[in-house]
Amino acid sequence: MNVGLSHYLVLSAILFTLGLLGLLMRRNVIVILMSVELMLNAVNITFVAFSRYSPSGNMDGQAIVFFVMTVAAAEAAVGLALATTIFKKFREVNIRYFEHLKG
Description:
By secondary structure, the protein is mostly helical.
C-alpha cells in the first residue's frame, strides 16, 4: 500500500480536530496545553507532507517545522509556568482560575 499525500492530510486533519475538541471541551490547563501541542503537530505533519510531495522538492516545509517546534516549546514553558502558579495558589489546575490572577 502506497502512502500518499492524502493519507498525511487525513491524519493531520484528524489530529487537528482532536486537538481542537480537547481545547474547547476541557477545563484543565495541562490538557489544554497538550491539545495545543497536538494541533501544532498536525500542522507540522501537513508542512512536511507538502514539502515531501512538492514537485520542486524544496525543504521549505521542513524548515518551517523547526520554527513551529520552537514556538511550541516556548508556549509549553509559559503555559506550564502559569499552570504551576495556578496550582500553587488554588491546589487545582482549572482554566477558570486564570481570572483570579489579575495583578
